[in-house]
Amino acid sequence: MEINIVNITSDDVKELYNCNKTVLPIYYYKDQYLEFINDFDHILLKAVDKDNIFIGYIIGRRENKKRFHILSFGVYKQFRRQKVGSLLMSEIEKHALNKFDSIQFISLNVITTNHIGIKFYENCGFKKVRLLEHYYGLNEHGFTYGKNINMA
Ligand SMILES: CC(C)(COP(=O)(O)OP(=O)(O)OC[C@H]1O[C@@H](n2cnc3c(N)ncnc32)[C@H](O)[C@@H]1OP(=O)(O)O)[C@@H](O)C(=O)NCCC(=O)NCCS
């Protein structure tokens, strides 16, 4: 499958919202995506197929000089397991390193019951950093995962 990874613009907000809402229980107001797009610290990428069909996205934000945090990430079910997620993740790492040259660490939070997400992140080289008790609600715990980047 031919996949292209490109920057998300204001024209993509509706599709981004639809995809985020379909693949994850936590999503944003449409205006919030626009704020992310217009904010220098954020990077938003989408995966499209050869016909420019929206198949997945990833959103990350520089948290401080050294750390970049993945806020939201997903691929439509029918396109999973074809390395689209891996491509989105490796591209956002590259974009973050190019845009913010002091970044050394990439982090993300994941609910402890998202076994597929956890398998995916471990496969990408992320390691568990800490437990976030009740982070997603009462008795809904999370993990922070992280990975060193820019080791050169
Ligand atoms: C997590 C997600 C983005 C992965 O996207 P994807 O395009 O399917 O991922 P890839 O095809 O690049 O998978 C890479 C590796 O991750 C692991 N993996 C991915 N999906 C898996 C599954 N269903 N079962 C077991 N391992 C899986 C495998 O090791 C896989 O490599 P392999 O196919 O060679 O075995 C996707 O499952 C998704 O959108 N999930 C719902 C949203 C979500 O949970 N987002 C993360 C929130 S923190």
Topology, element by element:
Blueprint: E1 3-7, H1 13-23, H2 30-37, E2 42-49, E3 54-62, E4 67-75, H3 84-99, E5 105-111, H4 115-123, E6 127-132, E7 142-148
Parallel strand pairs: 4-5
Antiparallel strand pairs: 1-2, 2-3, 3-4, 5-7, 6-7
The protein binds coenzyme A.
Coenzyme A binds at residues 23-24, 73-75, 80-86, 110, 114, 116-117, 119-120, 123.
Short summary:
With 152 residues, the chain is of the alpha+beta class. Helix content is 29%, strand content 34%.
What percent of residues are in strands?
A: 25-35%
Overall body shape: globular
Bound molecules: coenzyme A
Largest sheet: 7 strands, mixed
Output the structural class.
alpha+beta
State mean pLDDT (0 to 100 scale).
96
- Low-pLDDT ranges: none
Question: How many distinct beta strands?
Answer: 7
- Give the ordered list of helices and strands: EHHEEEHEHEE
- Helicity level, as a percent range? 25-40%
Reading side by side through the largest sheet, how are the strands ordered? Answer: 1-2-3-4-5-7-6
Task: Describe the structure in your own words.
With 152 residues, the protein is α+β, with helices and mostly antiparallel strands. The protein has a single domain (3-148), classed as Aminopeptidase. The protein has helices spanning 13-23, 30-37, 84-99, 115-123; strands at residues 3-7, 42-49, 54-62, 67-75, 105-111, 127-132, 142-148. A seven-stranded mixed β-sheet has the order 1-2-3-4-5-7-6, with helices on both faces. The model has no long low-confidence stretch (mean pLDDT 96). The site of coenzyme A has 19 residues, from β4, α3 and α4.
